[in-house]
Fold:
Amino acid sequence: MASANYGPSEDQFLCSICLDVFTDPVSTPCGHNFCINCINEHWNTSDQNLCPMCKEDFTTRPVLRVNTFITEMIVQFRQSTQQKASSSSSEQQESKPGEVPCDVCTGTKVKALKSCLVCLVSYCETHLEPHLTASRLKRHQLMDPVENLEGRMCTKHDKPLELFCKSDQTCVCMLCTVLDHKNHDVVPLETEYEEKKVQLKKTEAEIQQMIQKRRLKIQEIKQSVDLSEEDAGREKAEGVQVFTDLMESVGRGLKELLKTIEEKQETTKKQAEAFIRELDQEISELMKRSAEVEQLSLSEDHLHLLQSSNIHQPPPTKDWTEVRVCPSYEGTVVRAVSQLKETLSEKMKKVLEAELKRVQMFAVDVTLDPETAHRQLILSDDGKQVKKNLQFPFIIFTINFGVLGSQSFSSGRFYFEVQVEGKTEWCLGVIRESVDRKGNTSLKPQNGYWILCLTNGNKYKALHDPPIVRSLKSGLQKVGVFVDYEEGVVSFYDVEAAALIYSFTGCSFTEKLFPYFCPGDYYDVRNSAPLIISPVGVN
Structure:
């Protein structure tokens, strides 16, 4: 009879306390083996010296010594295990991070080849062999290796989750279909898997499109920042130049003012000095005559006194009654400031002309929307003109007596121009999409209206609460309307004069804006001209 080759197993060298291979094994008097540190810590935490295995109580703690025989056996076992692991790893690939390891392998874990849904264990090629050869194990359901096999079992029936319930959108086992999910729409996992993969591909494509859009938006934002930096640099340079010129003009005006005053003061001083010299000369003559008169009055020579008649009268002198030294400085400062004002006005005009050219770069093509027009208005075929229908009688102005532009704006900047020449009444601006044009709401920013109006032929009003009146030197011919959505600004310009009429600032836009046009009513031939949306830059 051939002798069986029985080698030691790992279980024989496991400490019953730490459940690991012995480290410095010792034996108790009752014959059980433990790691020396494990048994000492066990006794240190207990009031009794009991054996963890058989519960034998030792009156005094036994003196323990390392069991050299078991230690040598452990060394040989570890060497044998390492040799087997080395031989096995040379034949099979060791599992890498992210791969499922074999649950049976001890020591070096080999990459699993299959997972069993019955055993709930993953096997490498070596340990999978019984499932491929044993008739009882062949009936087990194998699949590609996965982790967390317990999660693939029905927690209620302890069966593999092989089906998918579309009604409840959950994975189920075979028993679930006849119990909790009876009469539900149930399909194999593979079928739902394929459908979900198609959906995932669509989702992935949508996500990639969203990513691409956001990358483009990032580029757009970066370009906007670059443009903003360029604009900021240009505005700084222009601002520095303008204010430098203004300060130089103020400096020159101040110097000229001081020079004028000083020259006038110097002239006055010289005139006064000449008067004083002349007066001193007359005083000297008068004092001399006074001395002669006094001397003559003391004379007792009758003949001499009578013959000296030439000194009986004062010497001839100038009439100083109307002579004044009173310099006038009135109007000097006013004239200097007026001159400075003219200089500033010229420079301001140049600044406004440059600003108007910049906002005109954001010109958009606006046409009128007939669907939004009041029934008493007439629109031109090209959608560029609007006026009151003369067949209708006079009406009291209402909010809906106007028409909107066909185009809406919800971001960025835009500009358009409207010819208003010859009219005595009109309203222009932009309104919020959600405003109620059928009610009797006031045209003011709080209600979604940013409007400039002309009333009575000469009163220009920005419709705030209360309205802000603007005075213009001459009648407007063309009005420019500029909107910066993000900055919250609505500005109105006198295009011909290149002048800013008024700006609504600090606005908060959160929805679409539409251009708004109201030609006003018709009064005895007056105000019959239409509002005309004009091409920008064309006079």
